Amino acid sequence: MPDLPFIARARLFPERVAFRTQTSTHSHQQLLDRSSVIASALLGGDDDLKEARAALLVAPGFEYTASQWAVWRAGGIKLPICLSATEPEWEYALTDSQAGIVIADAANAAKIAPLCARLGVRLVNVSEISGDASKALPDIDVNRRAMILYTSGTTSKPKGVVTTHANIQAQIESLVQAWEWRADDRIPMFLPLHHIHGIINITGCALWSGALIEPFPRFDVGAILERVRADAYTLFMAVPTIYVKLIQAIEAASADDRAAIVTGFKKMRLMVSGSAALPASVHEQWTVLTGQELLERYGMTEIGMAISNLYRGERRPGSVGAPLPGVEVRLKAETGPVITGEDEPGEIQVRGPGVFQAYWNRPEATAETFEDGWFRTGDMAVLERGYYRIMGRLSVDIIKSGGYKLSALEIEAALLEHPLIAEVAVIGLPDDTWGEAVTAVVVLKRDATLELASLRDWCKGRLSVYKIPQRLRIVSELPRNAMGKVTKPAVRALFSA
Fold first, then answer.
1. Which CATH superfamily is domain 398-494 in?
2. Domain parsing of the chain, residue ranges
3. Dihedral, CA of residue 335, residue 341, residue 345 and residue 347, to nearest 10
4. pLDDT tens, residue by residue, 185-236
5. How far apart are CA 278 and CA 297, in angstroms?
6. Cα distance between residue 392 and residue 398, in whole Å
7. Using an 8 Å Cβ cutoff, are 7 and 28 in contact?
8. pTM (2 decimals)?
9. Mind listing the pLDDT tens digit for each residue in 284-339?
10. CB 73 within 8 A of CB 47
């Protein structure tokens, strides 16, 4: 049986640098060798992990990707989990996926070790694995399951999105073709690797093409701009929030620094924005400042990328473009019929080889989200002069903030754990920096008092940083309809009064 797609691609350019940091470089051949060693250690006395779930808690870079490839080469399913998540969030992902292994580097192994011990999950400290590959690795069919990536949906708990090796290959090949990736490309990678933007669009496409990645542990505006000044990159991908922060940093820089930074951005062949709506004002401001027209695209965890503005062609502010290679897109009216013309809004539905296989252990949810083989995205859009423009979610319970798609219901559930809170409603409000700001309105229990600053501090130990409400208000009661249900449009009105 032939190699898995990633392995076959890496063998085409073994000596090219895959990862570069200030202190080290690693080639594609080193990725192949290291992943083989880790895969051998994961297998132990077994011949095949047989789709055992292996969670990955490793800092971005060479060791992360070597561990990812090792899971796949050993026959496992990769489960990316957030480095900054709280223990309850880790526990949910591990228990829901029935993970049997956690692979962590030294720093993160210490953090998750107590949870692994409590759950009886095998903890592998990848930093301690050394030596040569001692086992023959199993043959893996591309139709085997490769990854479970958790994403917040319209329910209070995230669902595990299952993709096969073939799904991942289709997602990557579509972008490589559309955005003309090549081996001499160089890109920074500061987006999280429990998110499809970082996993597929950046790391996956770069390694598939033989390109170079500079990994960063997090977005550091000073460090990134220093590398931009040094003409380090040909490609740049970020969420709208980061572009807002870059604009602020460039405008605050001295004249000489600003000129050098702008020159670095101007030399890049492509800059992409995604994971949340890019305000047209930010698109235009970035073009005026750097001369670069940002390319906006549309995708989801379940489908990879589906729609994109053109690499060679119009990049229209406020629109996400046309279907990518190999992807079929249609709009379906809420009343039922498929929309065949322009200027009529409908739900985006997607079909193609990159579409996910199923939600993990949720057959009913999987069935509900497909219609005649088309994936129902839950996003509304309209086709205008050949380009799609996103209008928003069918559900008001999804908040897109800073590149993350968050469940308002999940955040509400966490806030209701506070001993002084009786009721809560969480919504997203338009925000130029975050796309949508996580906004909460709370009703306290009788005779209770609570300072907003104290509530924010309480949230820090229970919610990941990007889920903590950025706007908070305490009210005497929540607006409800005749059926007694909280009306979120009325909650929004509280902030516009």
1. ANL, C-terminal domain (3.30.300.30)
2. 398-494
3. 70
4. 999 999 999 999 999 999 999 999 999 999 999 999 999 999 999 999 999 9
5. 10
6. 9
7. no
8. 0.85
9. 999 999 999 999 999 999 999 999 999 999 999 989 999 999 999 999 987 779 99
10. no
